[in-house]
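Bumping my old thread because nobody answered last time. Still need a sequence for this structure:
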């Protein structure tokens, strides 16, 4: 990306080069005008020069002086190219001198103006050039700069000079236009790259926010559901004077304490000042894995849900962090949904994981049972689907034909430090 100082230096360098080019073009036009005056018979015939050279009449001097003044307009070629073109055409057609100023105006128009103006300038300059050639061919007389050159040779020289002048200035304008378009394209590309970089950063931040939101939901939803459920139970048994009040209060206090710990860890991850860019697994977030599934099962049983679990894990420590976390969170969310929507029911849980076969998980509960009244946002189901998609797995959630609600998950094995392991889902 260009800095302001470099841009300013480049701007002044171009202005200096532009002024030098205008001065050079002006000098060339003056010299060519002098030679052109010597080629026009009406401009000759004044007092002979001391060295015997051709003399210029007063009319020739006047024509040269007018052309000199008109050629000063070359210094406004960038802002007034049509003025150059018109004055150059006047010099060629009225003063009968060279059309170089018109060609330079055409070059500027080709370099800077729209297609319609470019076509008009190029075609018009070509027509004027042809008229000048025809006029010179029909003019009899001796070519003063080289008196020994015959008429056909002079005409051929005029044609070659006209073609070179026209083609040269045309190509110069076209090359300058191509360069300007390339620079403009580069500038737009740089702006687009900056815009894309900004969008990439924003998407990375959004991805991180969504990931942390999913972690917060999955980490706290289970425990807070248990807190709410046991609070209701505590209220009921307290009214009845039941001795289970102490046990229920202990469960509520324990889950509330764990929820606060989880929240503190997650907030710590959000406030980490040393993290640059998206983080796949912040160290502050506790890494729960397959080996911790028993904790979720125990807390679900404590909530009054009968869990019939079959868990067979082979080398779970060899699984990657993303796979470990995904299995734990999916089990946690599925059992949380049972506590929310089917309290008191029985749940069948079948979890098998091995490096060779991957992870197979099935959680089933009957569709009967009274709901607990706890609200559901649907974020848990979305979180499960995103975790499975991040690992290129498959998930099926919904009622079955035999009256059960089932969560079925298949995940490929992703080992620790496996380069093929997908990144976290956003």
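Sorry it took so long. Here it is:
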């Amino acid at each position: 990306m260009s800095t302001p100082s470099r841009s300013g230096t480049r701007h002044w360098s171009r202005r200096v080069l532009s002024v030098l080019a205008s001065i050079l073009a002006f000098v060339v036009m003056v010299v060519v005008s002098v030679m052109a005056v010597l080629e026009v018979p009406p401009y000759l015939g004044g007092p002979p020069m001391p060295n015997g050279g051709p003399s210029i009449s007063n009319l020739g001097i006047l024509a040269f002086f007018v052309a000199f003044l008109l050629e000063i307009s070359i210094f406004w070629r960038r802002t007034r190219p049509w003025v150059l073109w018109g004055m150059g055409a006047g010099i060629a057609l009225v003063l009968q001198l060279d059309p170089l100023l018109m060609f330079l105006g055409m070059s500027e128009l080709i370099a800077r103006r729209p297609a319609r103006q470019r076509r008009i300038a190029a075609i018009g300059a070509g027509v004027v050039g042809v008229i000048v050639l025809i006029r010179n061919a029909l003019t009899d007389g001796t070519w003063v700069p080289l008196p020994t050159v015959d008429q056909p040779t002079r005409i051929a020289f005029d044609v070659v000079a006209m073609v070179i002048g026209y083609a040269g200035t045309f190509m110069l304008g076209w090359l300058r236009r191509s360069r300007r378009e390339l620079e403009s394209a580069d500038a737009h590309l740089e702006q687009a790259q900056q815009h894309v970089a900004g969008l990439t950063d924003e998407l990375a931040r959004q991805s991180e926010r969504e990931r942390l939101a999913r972690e917060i939901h999955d980490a706290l939803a289970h425990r807070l559901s248990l807190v709410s459920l046991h609070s209701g139970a505590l209220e009921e048994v307290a009214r009845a004077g039941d001795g289970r009040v102490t046990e229920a209060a202990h469960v509520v206090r324990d889950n509330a304490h764990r929820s606060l710990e989880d929240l503190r860890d997650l907030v710590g991850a959000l406030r980490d000042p040393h993290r640059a860019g998206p983080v796949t697994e912040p160290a502050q977030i506790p890494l729960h894995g397959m080996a911790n599934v028993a904790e979720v099962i125990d807390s679900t049983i404590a909530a009054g849900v009968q869990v019939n679990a079959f868990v067979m894990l082979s080398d779970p420590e060899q699984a990657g962090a993303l796979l470990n976390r995904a299995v734990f969170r999916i089990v946690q969310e599925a059992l949380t949904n049972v506590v929310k929507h089917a309290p008191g029911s029985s749940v069948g849980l079948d979890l098998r994981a091995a490096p060779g076969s991957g992870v197979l998980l099935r959680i089933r509960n009957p569709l009967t049972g009274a709901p607990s009244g706890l609200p559901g946002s649907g974020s848990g189901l979305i979180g499960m689907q995103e975790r499975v998609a991040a690992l290129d797995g498959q998930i099926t959630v919904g009622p079955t034909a035999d009256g059960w609600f089932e969560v079925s998950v298949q995940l490929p094995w992703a080992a620790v430090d496996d380069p093929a392991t997908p990144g976290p889902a956003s």
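The first strand starts at residue 306 and ends at 313. Let me know if any region looks off to you.
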